[in-house]
Structures are given as structure tokens and as C-alpha cells.
Design goal:
By secondary structure, the protein is of the alpha+beta class. The protein folds into 2 domains: 2-214, Tetratricopeptide repeat domain (Serine Threonine Protein Phosphatase 5, Tetratricopeptide repeat, Alpha Horseshoe); 259-450, Histidine kinase-like ATPase, C-terminal domain (Heat Shock Protein 90), CATH 3.30.565. Helices cover 67% and strands 9% of the residues. The strands form 2 sheets. A 5-stranded mixed beta sheet has the order 2-4-5-7-6, covered by helices on one side. It has a two-stranded antiparallel sheet with strand order 1-3.
């Protein structure tokens, strides 16, 4: 029956939920015992080798001790005492706090030492056993210790001690032959072994519960992480979609602010007036200028960066159109650093035009002296500084405040988006010139536009 049930268990050993790692390892201990019982020595050694390998993989110390102990016994029966002693020494590393195991291991090593002609080393181990206070609790090992003490002292020719231990051995054997004592000892031994096995079973059950709990917790953690990753990806997708919609909306606002219907109507009116005056050449020039501006606004509103040259050309087209439709004259001055390569410097598009428009429409309106607009561009380490100066009337927050606030709102939205995307700062400031010098008129606008192609 023993062999039948062991082989049944062996057939389901690879089913992980059915056979935990430690039970699988100890299954080879049972197979080794069956092979040894049938005198299939090599098969038994092979099973114990497998037990040892599996126990090392899962750090199962009791499995390793079982493998070494049984292999030592087999090599002892084969007469290979040195090999058996080596295995007994390896097993000693896995002794637990149970004194029975310690005493039994010492006696096994003594038997092997006597077979290899080392009685002096054997006597040291036997003295440890004889002085152990709990030796009397284990009658079989006590009897074995006394017998080995007698044999060891005979080999050492300590005949006095040998006689003394032989006398103690006979007394102990007599006591053990007593029927009542024998029954009591047997009952105690049975109870001890039963308690030991029950304790082992309870330990294995507790270990299996812990292992199963860890497995369930692991799967729960994996499921939680999977859901968390899905939520993170969904949130990322949602935010990107929102950012795309905000960018599209901002582009539409930018187009409306750059090409508002009032501006288009005024430009067309100016071109029409030239045609009425039979100034076809001027009308054609301004119409061409308007076409270039319209195309620039449509192209640049969807781009993240353009060259400084393109930005300036767009401003020139816009200013020329404003000159054509305005009844008051003004001049424009462009100032550059001599070493600036405006073809290769890239900046965010269409950030300067709202401030130029404000200077022309509100600064030069109804002036009684010639207006002057100055645009100064300077290249710094990581940005372009733009200074817009006019000699107009200065800032007036009460006039056309709604249009100005919308333009400024769009500018601030674009400013945040550019700083977030490019990781670079974009700064600007307004200043009425008469706050510093009462004799001066106009507004100074200062911008720091990040250079986007200097990384």
C-alpha cells in the first residue's frame, strides 16, 4: 500500500496546485526508501540526489538533512565509510534544536569513525552524548551510546573504562527487558513520534497556507497593477486629446485675432479706393501684400516655430497694409544686430503682431505729429529680445479694452503652451514712456522670445 500511494502521488507531482514544492521534494525521500527496501541501491541514491537538488532550490533544510542522512546510511552498508562520514558531516549543518537528532548524528559518526580507525575522535563525540542531560529521555540512543563507549574504549585499550561502560550497558539492557518498562518506553516513544509527526504536519499545513496566501496576494497585486496601468494610459490618452482640442481652439482664436473681419474690410476698402483713383499699380501692390499676409497667417498658425526672417516679413506686410488704410502718417524703423542670422533663428510664430497692431491703432490714432514705430531685435544666449517702441499717445485702458483683453488672453494662453512644450521661458512687459520721462510719449513693449533651435 505504501508503494502504491507513493506512485500515485508521483504521477501528479508536476501539478503545482496539487503538489507544493516541499511535498514534491519529500516524495523522492519516499521513493528512495522504497528502492532501498527492495535493495535497489543505485536507484535509491538517485532519488536521494533528486531530493537534495530540489531541497536546495527551495532552501528546504529538512529535505537536505533527510537526503544526507539516508545516503550516509547506504554508503555505510556498502562499506564506504569515508564517504558515509563525509555525508554525516554535511547533514550536521541542518540539525535543528531537537536534541534527539544531535545525539543520533553523533552516534552515527562514532560508528563510522570506529570503522575508519579513529577511536580518539569517536570518544570526544561519545563524551558529548554521555554528558547530555536529555540522553536518558531516549532509551534507544542511550543504549547505543553505552555500547559505543564500550567498543571505543576497547579499541583504545582503556580496559578499565571499557569494563565500566559494559557494566552500565548490561544494567540498562536489563532494565529495558522488563516488560512494564518496555511497554512504557514503547508508549512514550510512540507518543513522541506521533507528536513529532503531528507537529511536522501542522508546520507543513501552516507553510502551505502562507504560500497560498502569498500566491493569491501576488495575483491580486498583478491585477491591481494591470488596472492601474490601463487607467494611466486612458488618462494619458484623454489628456492628450484635450491638449489637441485646446491647441486647435487656440489656433482658431489666433486666426480670428490676426485676420479679423474689420481689418479685412478696411484693407479691401483701401484697395478699392486706389482703384477709384485709377492707381491700379498701388492697388495691385497692396492686394499682393494682403495675399502674402493671408497666406503667412494661415501657414504659420499651424506651425510651432518659424524663422525670424519669416516673422519679420509677415510684420512688414501687415504694417504696409496698415499704412495704406490709415489717414495719419507714421514711419517704421527695423533695428538688427549685424551678426544676427535671421534665416536660421527659429522662434514661436505670430507673437509680435498683436503689440504692433496695438501701437498703430491706439498709439497713432488722431496724432497731431508724425508717428514713429521702432522694432529692435537683439540676439542673446538662448532668446531673442524684441523691443517695440512708439511715440504715440501711450496706454489707455478704457479705449477698446475688450479687443485688447481678448488679444492679451490669447497671447497668455499661447505663452503657457509654448513654455510647457519647449521648457523655456517667454517673458514680456508693457511700459508707458512718460512714467520715466514726462517729456516723452508712447509705449515700450519688451519681449523675450525663446530660440527653439539652439539645443
Amino acid at each position: 500500500k505504501w508503494e502504491e500511494y507513493v506512485w500515485k502521488a508521483y504521477r501528479i507531482k508536476d501539478c503545482e496546485p496539487c503538489t507544493p514544492p516541499r511535498e514534491k521534494a519529500m516524495l523522492y525521500a519516499e521513493l528512495g526508501g522504497i528502492a532501498k527496501y527492495k535493495n535497489q541501491i543505485q536507484a535509491a541514491l538517485g532519488y536521494y540526489d533528486t531530493l537534495l537538488v530540489l531541497s536546495k532550490e527551495i532552501a528546504y533544510f529538512n529535505g537536505q538533512k533527510t537526503a544526507y542522512d539516508n545516503q550516509a546510511l547506504i554508503y555505510k552498508d556498502l562499506g564506504e565509510y569515508e564517504k558515509a562520514l563525509e555525508l554525516a558531516n554535511l547533514s550536521e549543518a541542518f540539525l535543528n534544536d531537537n536534541p534527539f537528532n544531535y545525539i543520533s548524528n553523533n552516534n552515527t559518526k562514532v560508528e563510522l569513525l570506529l570503522e575508519t580507525g579513529k577511536p580518539q575522535e569517536a570518544l570526544v563525540l561519545l563524551d558529548e552524548n554521555a554528558t547530555n542531560k536529555v540522553l536518558s529521555n531516549y532509551s534507544s540512543e542511550r543504549l547505543r551510546t553505552f555500547r559505543l563507549l564500550y567498543q571505543t574504549n576497547v579499541q583504545l585499550k582503556n580496559y578499565h573504562d571499557a569494563y565500566r561502560w559494559n557494566d552500565s550497558l548490561r544494567v540498562l539492557e536489563t532494565l529495558l527487558r522488563n516488560a512494564d518498562v518496555g511497554k512504557e518506553m514503547a508508549a512514550l516513544e510512540t507518543r513522541y513520534q506521533t507528536e513529532k509527526k503531528e507537529h511536522q504536519i501542522s508546520l507543513l499545513t501552516a507553510e502551505n497556507k502562507i504560500i497560498n496566501q502569498r500566491i493569491r496576494l501576488g495575483w491580486l497585486l498583478i491585477g491591481f497593477l494591470f488596472v492601474l496601468i490601463i487607467l494611466a494610459l486612458a488618462l494619458l490618452f484623454f489628456r492628450r486629446k484635450q491638449a489637441y482640442f485646446r491647441q486647435s481652439e487656440l489656433q482658431q482664436k489666433l486666426l480670428r485675432s490676426q485676420m479679423n473681419p474689420h481689418f479685412i474690410f478696411n484693407v479691401m476698402g483701401s484697395i478699392q479706393s486706389y482703384l477709384y483713383k485709377n492707381e491700379a499699380a498701388k492697388a495691385a501692390d497692396y492686394l499682393s501684400c494682403f495675399a502674402r499676409l493671408s497666406r503667412s497667417v494661415l501657414d504659420y498658425s499651424s506651425q510651432e516655430n518659424i524663422s525670424l526672417k519669416d516673422e519679420i516679413e509677415m510684420l512688414q506686410n501687415y504694417i504696409e497694409l496698415e499704412k495704406a488704410r490709415m489717414t495719419f502718417p507714421f514711419e517704421v524703423e527695423y533695428i538688427f544686430d549685424e551678426e544676427m542670422e535671421i534665416d536660421f533663428i527659429e522662434i514661436p510664430p505670430m507673437l509680435i503682431q498683436p503689440f504692433v497692431e496695438n501701437a498703430i491703432k491706439h498709439g497713432f490714432w488722431d496724432l497731431d505729429y508724425p508717428g514713429k514705430l521702432s522694432l529692435c531685435f537683439r540676439e542673446k544666449k538662448d532668446h531673442i529680445s524684441v523691443e517695440i517702441l512708439d511715440n504715440g499717445k501711450g496706454l489707455n485702458t478704457n479705449k477698446n479694452g475688450n479687443h485688447n483683453s481678448k488679444a492679451l488672453e490669447i497671447f497668455m494662453q499661447r505663452k503657457k503652451g509654448i513654455e510647457r512644450r519647449c521648457k523655456k521661458e517667454l517673458t514680456f512687459e508693457f511700459q508707458n514712456l512718460n512714467t520715466l520721462d514726462k517729456t516723452k510719449h508712447g509705449v515700450r513693449v519688451y519681449l523675450q522670445l525663446p530660440i527653439l533651435n539652439n539645443d
